[in-house]
DNA sequence: TGTCTGGATGTTTTT
DNA sequence: CATCCAGACA
């Protein structure tokens, strides 16, 4: 046997060698799951299975890329490129691009992201004359998404007594109608949302037997990663694809199931065993990642959940250090202590930035960590949050491309028809949409025949200019590659020039973002075609759009950059780091206030905590703050209930208030000598310039304020005591004089002339002011 | 038609 | 506190 098998333990090898027939691998955290899948695929190929006949589905592009890379490493050569490895969404999008016409969609169909989808919902709610307050896009989209993930179409939704009751109870009885209208609208626009990529794939396989047969023959071996996170559609599709050869291999860990809000159900693991007569089950229980201490804590935490698949995770690694549990006064202190600790570990134990990860429950928590890291000059990178492709200027530019590729894309038209300003305003747009609806045609059709629909001559002229321009782009579509065409678009629309002329900091950032977009298109155009893109592998704009629609910049990796990584726990799944900080272990935050109403919800939060803990290899720090800013207000929180579930013998508790290097100087507390020194020397008065360039997702520029360091004994004065003419101190803007007090008593507003930052209007409910004595 | 602004609203988690 | 949006006005 080949030598790659030598590195495997007994159950791992068993899983790898098993060739035909269904197999389920229950893989505990850190048990070498990825290694098993990749080795298994490599082994299949080595034993004669054609790479073209292997399908591997993952949940993130990153996981897919990593797998491909590791298989290539095992096998050498380029054969691994012929594998079908990708996320559910990207693989299905690729297949649908070829098959969409069967379903009545153009093969150039647009993929709507969540923002596009919400916008369509908003339009539809308006057109149905429903209350927009009642039917908020977010809530409605969530509901529709769950329905699609459960394979419930609009008609079925409306006929389902239970769903109807639920909607009635939540005062939203019309969601079914919205769902139907939304689906129709997307169809009309030639667009699919994320969930459609799964839903329509299922339609394709069930509605067209010849299609089903084609892909069953093609994918003789099917592998699914993170099986515990599959939802109903995904489960059904896998079942369909695997039905002919039954060579289905699923890998999962019920203890790490954290996506039930997306319709995932652990039931799929149990169901899988019932779907086939004979199924092999392998359990991977040896953990190679973490110290005994870390694993003990993880095992203890998860033991509070009922109903798990039995398994006992163990490790032969060293005992390791105790887990540090750190309490701080505020979220800002939490940020400081984490940054300080990182600095200390770097100096003392020679860690690199890369060795650290800061994990949290919600994206909003990144702020305090960012600030502290930046202040200390520690390079960091935030994963998740707003993606590059979601930025307004980037989306606007992309909308032009979308429109050129798919003129039926109404959302794209609405975005660009008056950007840059060309005299086609809201009134005209509303009219266009109305006419299109009445004539049962697309907005683009109306635009191209605008003269027939009684617009004023001035408006008509504007429309004509716009249409002519878009048509010009369209005529270039086949002749030019994605990059050349996008350059033409940038020039002809004046977008690039307009942004260039905007010399504000924000404008500059926007200009740079658009340049960055053009660079990425150039890169796409120049990268040699990958066989994996088989059916769609051209360098056209359409091909490019398809690709970026499913890209999140979580995986847009410059892996080699040495940076501390910040991300949500969800985003951290599947990753590991030598040193892990888990922040915000407070009631209402973690577990989230939204998820403490049922046992199921709470157990999912606990699994999430389990995932967080098991990311750590050698050092784990848990932190929580007595109080933190939420909704602009300081909020007190109890420590997370999960902390009580950990045996204190595993913990080393500390209170940041006593830490020698970092007196818990909260924003208004006393500052320590060390801190005053740092202010005095290290940082300059403005913007505390970092020693090293900080890596962030292309900064969204903010108007510059010269940062003010609050006086040591800053204590906010009562709002009632403030008077015009008084000298005051503001935490951020510094010293100044109250010019004017105005606004209602419940929302007073002060106009203050600051010494260094000029005149500002301050809402006193939020900002704290200190009256200066004498 | 475009720009300004007060008021409402928001925080789970993601492909 | 930041962002988004509807209505007011230019």
Describe this structure in words.
- The protein has 774 residues and is of the alpha/beta class.
- It is built from 29 helices and 23 strands.
- The strands form 5 sheets. Strands 11, 12, 13, 14, 15, 16, 17 and 18 form an 8-stranded mixed β-sheet that branches. It has a 6-stranded parallel β-sheet with strand order 3-2-6-7-1-8, with helices on both faces.
- Helix 27 (599-613) links the parallel strand 15 (577-582) and strand 16 (616-630).
- Helix 5 (114-127) crosses helix 6 (137-149) and helix 17 (392-405) packs across helix 21 (457-476).
- The relative contact order is 0.11.
- The model is unreliable at 531-536, 658-708 and 743-747 (pLDDT under 50).
- The chain binds a DNA duplex (15 and 10 nucleotides) through residues 59-61, 87-90, 113-114, 194-195, 197-198, 258-259, 261-262, 361-365, 384, 418, 421, 423-428, 550, 552, 554, 568-571, 589-590, 592-595, 604, 608, 629-633, 747, 763, 766-767.
């Amino acid at each position: 046997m080949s030598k790659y098998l030598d590195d495997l333990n007994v159950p791992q090898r068993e899983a790898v060698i098993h060739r035909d027939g269904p197999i389920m691998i229950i893989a505990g955290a850190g048990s070498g799951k990825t290694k098993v899948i990749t080795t298994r695929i490599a082994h299949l190929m080595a034993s004669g299975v054609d790479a073209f006949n292997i399908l591997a589905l993952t949940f993130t592009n990153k996981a897919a890329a990593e797998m491909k890379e590791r298989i290539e490493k095992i096998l050498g050569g380029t054969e691994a490129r012929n594998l079908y490895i990708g996320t559910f969404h990207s693989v299905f999008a690729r297949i649908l691009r070829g098959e969409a016409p069967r379903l009545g969609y153009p093969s150039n169909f647009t993929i709507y992201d969540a923002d596009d989808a919400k916008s369509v919902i908003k339009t539809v709610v308006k057109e149905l004359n429903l209350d927009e307050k009642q039917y908020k896009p977010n809530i409605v989209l969530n509901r529709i998404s769950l329905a699609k993930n459960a394979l419930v179409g609009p008609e079925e939704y409306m006929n389902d007594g239970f769903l109807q009751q639920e909607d009635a109870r939540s005062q939203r009885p019309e969601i079914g109608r919205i769902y139907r209208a939304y689906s129709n609208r997307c169809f009309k626009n030639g667009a699919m949302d994320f969930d459609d990529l799964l839903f329509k794939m299922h339609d394709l396989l069930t509605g067209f037997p010849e299609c089903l047969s084609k892909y069953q023959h093609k994918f003789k071996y099917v592998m699914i990663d993170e099986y515990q996170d599959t939802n109903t559609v995904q489960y059904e599709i896998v079942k369909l694809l695997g039905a002919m050869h039954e060579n289905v291999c699923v890998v999962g860990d019920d203890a790490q199931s954290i996506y039930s809000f997306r319709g995932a159900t652990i039931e799929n693991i149990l169901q899988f065993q019932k779907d086939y007569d004979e199924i092999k089950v392998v359990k991977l229980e040896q953990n190679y990642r973490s110290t005994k201490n870390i694993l003990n804590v993880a095992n203890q935490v998860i033991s509070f959940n009922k109903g798990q698949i039995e398994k006992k995770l163990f490790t032969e690694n060293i005992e390791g250090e105790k887990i540090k549990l750190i309490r701080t006064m505020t979220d800002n202190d939490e940020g400081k202590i984490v940054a300080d600790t990182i600095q200390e570990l770097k100096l003392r134990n020679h860690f690199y930035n890369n060795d650290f990860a800061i994990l949290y429950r919600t994206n909003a928590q990144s702020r305090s960590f960012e600030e502290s890291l930046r202040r200390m000059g520690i390079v960091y990178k935030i994963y998740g949050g707003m993606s590059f492709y979601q930025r307004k200027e980037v989306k606007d530019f992309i909308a032009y491309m979308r429109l050129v590729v798919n003129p039926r894309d109404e959302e794209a038209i609405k975005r660009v028809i008056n950007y840059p300003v060309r005299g086609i305003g809201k009134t005209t747009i509303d009219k266009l949409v109305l006419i299109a609806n009445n004539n049962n045609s697309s907005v683009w059709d109306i635009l191209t025949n605008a003269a027939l629909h009684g617009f004023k001559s001035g408006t008509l002229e504007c429309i004509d200019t716009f249409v002519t321009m878009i048509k010009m782009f369209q005529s270039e579509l086949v002749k030019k590659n994605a990059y050349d065409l996008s350059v033409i678009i940038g020039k002809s629309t004046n977008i690039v020039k307009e942004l260039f002329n905007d010399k504000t900091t924000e404008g500059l950032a926007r200009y740079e973002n658009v340049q960055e977009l053009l660079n990425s298109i150039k890169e796409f155009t120049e990268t040699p075609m990958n066989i994996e893109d088989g059916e769609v592998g051209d360098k056209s704009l359409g091909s490019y759009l398809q690709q970026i629609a499913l890209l999140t910049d979580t995986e847009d990796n410059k892996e080699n950059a040495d940076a501390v990584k910040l991300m949500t726990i969800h985003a951290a799944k599947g990753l590991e780091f030598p040193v892990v900080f888990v922040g915000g272990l407070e009631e209402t935050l973690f577990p989230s206030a939204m998820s403490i109403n049922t046992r199921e919800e709470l157990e999912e939060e606990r699994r999430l905590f389990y995932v967080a803990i098991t990311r750590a290899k050698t050092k784990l720090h848990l932190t929580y703050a007595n109080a933190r800013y939420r909704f602009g207000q300081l909020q007190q929180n109890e420590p997370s209930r999960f902390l009580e579930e950990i045996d204190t013998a595993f913990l080393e508790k500390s209170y940041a208030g006593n830490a020698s290097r970092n007196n818990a100087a909260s924003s208004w507390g006393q500052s320590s000598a060390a801190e005053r020194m740092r202010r005095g020397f290290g940082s300059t008065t403005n913007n505390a310039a970092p020693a090293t360039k900080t890596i962030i997702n292309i900064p969204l520029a903010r108007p510059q304020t010269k940062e003010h360091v609050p006086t040591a004994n800053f204590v906010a004065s009562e709002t009632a005591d403030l008077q015009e003419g008084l000298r005051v101190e503001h935490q951020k803007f510094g010293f100044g004089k109250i010019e004017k007090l105005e606004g209602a008593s419940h929302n007073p507003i002060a106009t203050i002339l600051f010494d260094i930052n000029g005149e500002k209007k301050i809402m006193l409910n939020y900002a704290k002011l200190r009256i200066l004595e004498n």
